[in-house]
Structure formats: C-alpha cells, structure tokens
C-alpha cells in the first residue's frame, strides 16, 4: 500500500479508497492482539547485563584517599569517581559532587534549596518571589516539566532546534523579565529530539544578560556519552563558557550512570562552580551524612578510568543502534513520501521524536493503545502535557527486543496512516 504521492494531493475518491485500505490494515493489526510498550526510555535487560560485574564489586572497602567507604561521611562523594566524571564532563574534580542513584533527585534538591534558601547569587529565596518562571525548550523531558508544575513555577516554551534552544527567543525573554529564573537544557542528545546544543548557542546562553541576577541553566547532560554512531558528539563546555562570560554560577550540570550501568542503582553527578558545590553540599548536609560510597567505589573499580566509561558505552551502542535503525527503516518504508509525518534521526540518546499531521497525535496514540501498543501520551513532551499542535509523539525503542521494535513501529505507522486519512477525509 506504499503510495509515493503526498496524501493531501489525493482526489476525494482516492482518499476514500486509501481510508478504507487503512481501516482494513488497522483491523488486521488489532486482530493480532499485540502487547508492546514504547513508553519509557529504559535500558533493555541485555544492557543491564553489561554491568553485572558490579555485583561482585568492590574488591576493597577503602577509596583512593584511604576512606572506609562502609562508614558515614564524604558528602561530595569519593575522590576517584569525582575525578573520573570530572574528566568526562570537562570540569575540575572540586566542581563535581557524586551522589546517590538519581540525578533527577539532585535536580529536585537544587530547586528545593533555591526555593527555600536562594542560590549563591540570589537576592532572596525563590519562594519569596512574587512569581518564578522557567523557559522550557519543547519538545522536552516530561519529568522536568512536572517538577516545575509541582513547585507552581510558570513555564514559557521556546522551540528546541537542531542546534539547541532558540537562543534569540531565550535572550529576549530573560533580558526583560526578572521572574525568569531558569531554563532546562538537555544539551547532548536532547530528550526527545536527539539534538545537540552547538558551541555558539551554549556561548550565547552562558553570556546573555539576564534581568534576574541568579538565573540558572539546568544543564541536564543525561545522555552525554550515549552515542549511537562512531561520531561521538562532544558537549559544549558550559561551565567554562559561563565563567569566562562572568556568570560562573549560572550553569548547574547534572549527569548519571542510570543508562551506563544500572538505571536503578547507578551514581548521579552534579557539577558547577566551587561555590555552587559548597552551597549544594551545605544544604544536603542538613539531611544526609554521606552518600552510598560503596556503590561509588564499585563503579570506579568497574570502569577503571574515564576511557573505561567510553569503552563501555560502545557496548551499549552495539545493542541499541540496530533498534534505532529499525525505527528509521520502518518509518521511511511505511510513511516516506506521504507527507504525513517527520521524525528525528538521532545520533545519540534514547528517543526518536515523531511529528505527525497537526491535530492527529492524540488519535494516533489512542489507536495504538486500542491495538495493544503503549505509546507515551501525546503532548507529554510539553509543559502540562499540552502540545498546542497535537502533533508530537515520543518513541522510546531501547527497551523492547529488536523484533518487538520492528512490530511496534509497523503498528505505529499503521496508526499514523489511519489517523492522517481520517483527518484529511473529515
Ligand atoms: N534527565 C533526562 C533528560 C532523562 O531523560 C532522564 C531519564 O529518562 C533523567 C534525567 C533521569 O535521570 P536519573 O536516572 O539520573 O534520575
């Protein structure tokens, strides 16, 4: 049923025939009683298996500094894991905190601290401001948005382009509105578009004048090392750029080994100016005596070096790159030339961002659900789940087995075509 003619160019009769054909294809799909899930960006169990040497580590109980990792203390994390990830993130070890198993928790902690106490450069706690606003590049990571919503922080969207957020729009907004206190950025292999923030955009964001003196860039580098090709993108060095521009406290960087080792038992990192690190651990110390240093030590021993992390990521790539290739193959075979969808071809990260005809994303997700294929709810990559064009769907192909990815994408294509045909016939 491949049709090289754009769907919108079909005559009424042709379109009616196409719709009939798609209804039949969809009924056949439904009859197969599939049960597939493309909702969350989780590592497959074969990826988790790559790190099972962790289960017999550490082989000692003291870190490089001679600290007994079984005991309390060391809020900033053990020396060797800080050094290793400082190397990987191009910062100094004293600019890094190694924490628990979740960088998202660290992001929430930072927001709580800013809210209750203010940052190193704040005039007052954010919670005492009349209004706090964040800039949210879209499409973006749903949990960033739900976290802001939980605080009652207002969200203004800007487009996420191939080279990062629309920096002109951001610069214009932050210049005049002192309620704008921050922006989320997933710089290297954005969730969900896979785009990479260019050096120029990073420099602009690091140096732009802001009406708020304590404007923060939440630089969430969750996929910094998660390359899908041999062309390994390097993240812009946001801390140096900001320091050079006279705004050393503006960026706060986050990363974790959730998708390097174990998603539920990795190590998370925060990086910033030395003052930011002191500020963070100072507040952290009111509720913690030290992190799980034993987990940090076993990670340090498992990787051996920063290069060990890079080498390990190649093994992930070998498992997941073929799944992304299947997404690309099926979508282009089934949808190519029909002008009913565009999608990203990421070179890293965990997602493909699919844009269908305006006004049909919710219908596609509903059709898929009724056929047994769970997709992320339409709009979930937008604040409050509101995609004003109802066109974006986030695809997460890492978790299912390769054959399931193929089946699921074929099913998604069927739903996209039926929704498009219905929409154009209406
Ligand atoms: N940041 C982004 C952009 C993510 O996509 C995810 C997980 O999907 C996280 C953070 C969660 O990180 P962590 O497991 O370290 O809490």
Automatic annotation (TrEMBL):
InterPro entries: AspAT_Ic, PyrdxlP-dep_Trfase, PyrdxlP-dep_Trfase_major, PyrdxlP-dep_Trfase_small. Keywords: Aminotransferase, Transferase. SUPFAM superfamilies: PLP-dependent transferases. The keyword Transferase applies. GO terms for molecular function: transaminase activity. This is Aminotransferase class I/II-fold pyridoxal phosphate-dependent enzyme.
